[in-house]
Design goal:
4 helices, about 150 residues, mainly alpha
């Protein structure tokens, strides 16, 4: 008999790709109106809030659970690893590629900049996640979150 593992829709299903919407928005920044880029951040932020809320609600049902601490932990981790750091990273990659291709025709430059941003996404995810894990384990959890007792 196999044990059925609970599926976390925010981590184990395609819903998790909503957290990457802002990276895609940043990659397309030079081709779309800024409202589209802002909307991509709204999608990612909504994903982060939904995941944090979901984890906090589950924690509330556990004996001695700490739902507010769980909410803060997930919100900080996801906010850094899914929105802030990757968005900044893709933005800077695209900016740098744009500077390096500045003498090319605008249409060619736009395709290269957008393509570079999109191609970078799979390569930045794991290092950013590991870095945020270290930051949370060595800094945020022991010094900031330890003071939240609910």
């Amino acid at each position: 008999m196999t044990e059925s593992k609970e599926v976390d829709i925010y981590r184990d299903t395609p819903v998790r790709y909503l957290g990457y919407a802002n990276e895609v928005g940043e990659a397309f920044r030079n081709l779309v109106h800024r409202t589209v880029v802002r909307f991509s951040y709204l999608v990612s932020a909504s994903y982060v809030l939904a995941d944090a809320t979901s984890k906090a609600r589950k924690e509330k049902d556990v004996l001695d659970g700490k739902p507010i601490r769980t909410f803060a932990d997930v919100l900080i981790w996801q906010g850094l690893a899914s929105v802030a750091i990757p968005g900044f990273t893709i933005n800077r990659i695209c900016w740098g590629v744009g500077k390096m291709t500045g003498k090319l025709p605008a249409a060619t430059r736009s395709v290269i900049v957008t393509g570079s941003g999109l191609l970078a996404i799979p390569f930045i995810i794991k290092p950013i996640d590991r870095g945020v894990d270290i930051l949370m384990e060595e800094g945020v959890r022991p010094y900031a979150l330890k003071h939240i007792h609910v």
